[in-house]
Amino acid sequence: MKVLRAVFLVLLGLFFFIPLLAMARFAFQSVPVVLLTPEKLLEGWSVSGLIEVFGSPEFQKAAFISLQLMLLAIAITLVLLLPVAALVEIRAPQLRTAMAAITLLPWVVPPIALVVGVAATFRNTVPWFLASPYSLVPFYVLWALPFSYRAIDAGLRSIGARTLYEAARVMGASTFTIIVRVIVPNMIGAIIAASVLTAALVLGEFAFAALLLKETLPTFMAEFQRSEPRAGMALALAVMLLTALIIWIGVRALRKRGMDLQAAGV
Amino acid sequence: MATVLLSGIRKEFGSTVALSDFSLEIESGELICLLGPSGCGKTTALRVLAGFEKPDAGTVIVGGEDITSLPTAQRNFGMVFQEYSLFPNMTGLGNVEFALKLRKAGSAERKETVDRLLEITRLTEHADKFPHQMSGGQRQRVALARALASQPRVLLLDEPLSALDAKVRDSLREEIRRVQREVGVTTLFVTHDQHEALAIADRVGVMSEGRLEQLDPPRVLYERPASAFVAGFVGTVNRMPAEREGDRWRVLNRAVRAQPTVPGAHLALVRPEQIAVDGDAQGDATVSAITFLGPLTRVVVDGPGGSVIADLLTAEFGGVSVGDTVRIRLRDDVSDVVLIEA
């Protein structure tokens, strides 16, 4: 059994590692592709291509936009979702099932349908809305909802939000005070989880941005890869590592509070 | 301190009637326990008083003021919950102080009140701990101190001991009673545990199906149950045939005094400790079980009228064993019994 397990783990490791190695060699070895043989594994490694991309104004613009979209999506998610989820839990727990179903909807409707529908509506009513890259933010907030809502909801339940609310209410606190001074400070774990998941989704989202013709990091990468396949691959690896890093930081922050992503409802 | 008057309260949840024409008066400084099986409406009664549930009918009057539609936050009550309800992000001290900060009390007043409360709940050395560093008993003591911080008009305790283990429960029960007397606050305590209710309350209200069956001091409740439900719910009781003999009623071997509330056939409610069991080969009953309970020994006897439970003082227990033929009688010191309609 032990041997079998080891073999399985090695195979699984190779399954992940070989494509990554291939990507890395293609991206960072300045050796013509046909000459990327096993003997030349250690030859000509260089990150100059990647540095060049990082220096290019197009990349910087796209990355900056994506970063802003990420922060805005997180901010709006928290500002809207946290009070709504808290009020549902506290005042109307019977609505929780409905909320769970509604928050899944964004993943039931395909992005293309969402975009076409929304675009058609807004083009005729408020055309300026879709002109700005920030018009992606509402889509991203919706798109992350299945994850962010679950993280927040699990957090509310694990702290016993309802009892805390009633306890503070008897003491004379207003609903606003309770959310700001009692609920939120005890939900840091869930807030981190919701934020990390939203960040990871925004940094990787391609369909909405491409359909609405916005230049974000993923759409820039897709385009860039066509003209500069090797530097494009390098960039893809870098973004992958960055996303992994964000999730890792989030998981560590959660672990410090004695939670994991699972406990945060994911 | 204030008197509480709940009158004619009705509360329905969908098709379930939680309270129907429920009335209760609590005197100033009194501790009343609402006791009953789960689903009897006791928690709903407390939540109506707290303002968490709005009654469909009836009024809530505290200190002469009708507060039926006053929001919870403005009632100035204190409450301890069954679940641990301390704010996890604040220390014990922070929790107790929270209500005072909300009322914008000055720091000198805050310190004085908090110090006094931590002292009477014996928490002074735990004040800087966070809830997750405290034991269950300590958390509920902090919750009690916190509930008293704003000098509430009424203290509400919703099964505050249920989450604790037996030993802590007993000591905290005494503690709650001591603190309540010391502060003198009008208190409503809800529990499903009869021992808790009998031990702590000035008066106990037994509830069933959304109504108050009886509201009396613990001893009266035990000795003079107003209904078969109360008799059965508080302590153990035997129901035995009673026959009229002049102005007395015959139960087992003797005729004793009793007040029939209604005409017709009656059953006497006899507590296990009112029955004696004598070994007698000519007897009409058989011992079917014996349980040693420490100071008492419980003997179950099968006789012509069915199964009867007798609690004998272990010190006086004559030493019958299972299978013995015996005779049961009323103890000599029993002079009257409670009758119910058969």
Descriptive notes:
The complex is a heterodimer of chains A (266) and B (342). Chain A has 266 residues and is mainly alpha-helical. Chain A is 76% helix and 0% strand. In chain A, helix 9 (161-170) packs across helix 10 and helix 11 packs antiparallel against helix 14. Chain A is globular and about 75 Å long. By secondary structure, chain B is an alpha+beta fold. Chain B folds into two domains: 4-230, 3-Layer(aba) Sandwich (Rossmann fold); 236-341, OB fold (Dihydrolipoamide Acetyltransferase, E2P) (Beta Barrel), CATH 2.40.50.140. Chain B is built from eight helices and 20 strands. Chain B has helices at 42-50, 92-102, 107-120, 136-148, 166-183, 194-200, 218-223, 228-233; strands at residues 4-13, 16-26, 31-35, 57-62, 65-66, 77-80, 154-158, 186-191, 203-208, 211-216, 238-245, 248-251, 254-256, 266-270, 275-279, 285-292, 296-303, 306-313, 325-330, 338-341. In chain B, the strands form four sheets. Chain B has a six-stranded mixed sheet with strand order 6-7-8-3-9-10, with helices on both faces. Chain B starts with a strand and ends with a strand. The A-B interface holds A 159-160, 163-164, 166-174, 177, 182, 185-186 and B 50, 52, 72-79, 81, 83-89, 98-99, 102-103, 143, 146-147, 149-150, 156.
Which keywords apply here?
heterodimer; A: 266 residues; mainly alpha; MetI-like fold; 76% helix; B: 342 residues; alpha+beta; Rossmann fold; OB fold (Dihydrolipoamide Acetyltransferase, E2P); 2 domains; six-stranded mixed beta sheet; five-stranded antiparallel beta sheet; 8 helices; 25% helix; elongated
